[in-house]
Amino acid sequence: MFKSFVISSLLLIAVPAAAQTAPVIDNERVTVWDVKLPWGITGPTTPHDLDAVIMFLDDGIVSTTHANGKVTEAMRKAGDAIFVPAGSDLKDTVTTNGGIHEVVVALKNHPVPPLKNTTGLPRAFPRAGSKKIFENKRVAVWNNTWTPGVPTPMHFHDTDVVVAMLYDGTNKSVTTDNTVTTTTSKAGDIRFNKRDRAHSEELMTERQTGIMVELK
Question: Architecture of domain 130-215 in CATH?
């Protein structure tokens, strides 16, 4: 009996903690999970009935099991994202030491057309420092890097946006009426920013990159 207890205890020590799967955002447009996958642990299955976007906040090799049982492997880069159609039923397992951080955004069937832009300002994207990762009928996804001390042009957000930050950093926002606010983010922070915002942004610290999922 003592031997069995020792073996069970060793097994408990050897197995990493399970990934966090509780939603961090849940509203009429999206459900968002913050998924931290240790090495060797299989993450939750992507939502069967909803399209989804997976954002990657770390570099790492990911083994993905598909609905038909096929297994593929890919190197994921911090700041990248993929689109997962409904019914894909993907399950990721990290094969890189140290694990990987994913953000899974389930897209609810609640489309909202972009606001009419009457401000005379350009849309938020594209702009300097932004790279479009992909676009389809559900979303446009951007990798956006701010340059320290360089304000962006004043711009208008006509869509709701899910944002995931890659680093610690502080951004200053200046609206058209010169209202100034500062927001400090930690690496891995996730936010839902509602549309109808006009402002300029400036990075006050050394570095910051965000993955921006514009909802359609």
Answer: Sandwich (2.60)
